[in-house]
Amino acid sequence: MSALVSVREPGELRQYFERKRAEGKKPILVVNAVRNKLVHRVCAVIRNNRPYERRPITTT
Fold first, then answer.
1. Which of 14, 52, 11 has its CA nearest to residue 31?
2. Tens digit of each residue's pLDDT (9 = 90 or more) over 27-45
3. CB 13 within 8 A of CB 34
4. Distance CA 58, CA 9 (A)
5. Integer Cα distance of 48 and 35 in angstroms
6. Are 12 and 57 in contact (CB under 8 A)?
7. What confidence category does residue 52 fall into, taking pLDDT thresholds of 50, 70 and 90?
8. How far is Cα 59 from Cα 14, in angstroms, rounded to an integer?
């Protein structure tokens, strides 16, 4: 559910979702990639024992 919310709300993961969709990827595949990104971030927070630090969104 958090991956679905992440691609609906403005932010880094939505930009990622839209970029991958523009490349022709199927929506469910991109949602699974977003889910994987979220899991990696949670694991990094636990591993490093530090709170999550959100980076500002940059456009390139």
1. 14
2. 999 999 999 999 999 999 9
3. yes
4. 16
5. 20
6. yes
7. confident
8. 13
Structure token digits, residue 48:
């490093």
Three-class SS of 6-52: HHHCCCHHHHHHHHHHHCCCCHHHHHHHHHHHHHHHHHHHHHHCCCC
Whole-structure pTM value: 0.82
Which residue in the block uniquely carries the two structure tokens 């999550």?
52
- Whole-number Å distance between alpha carbons of 11 and 7: 8
16 CB neighbour count, 10 Å cutoff: 16
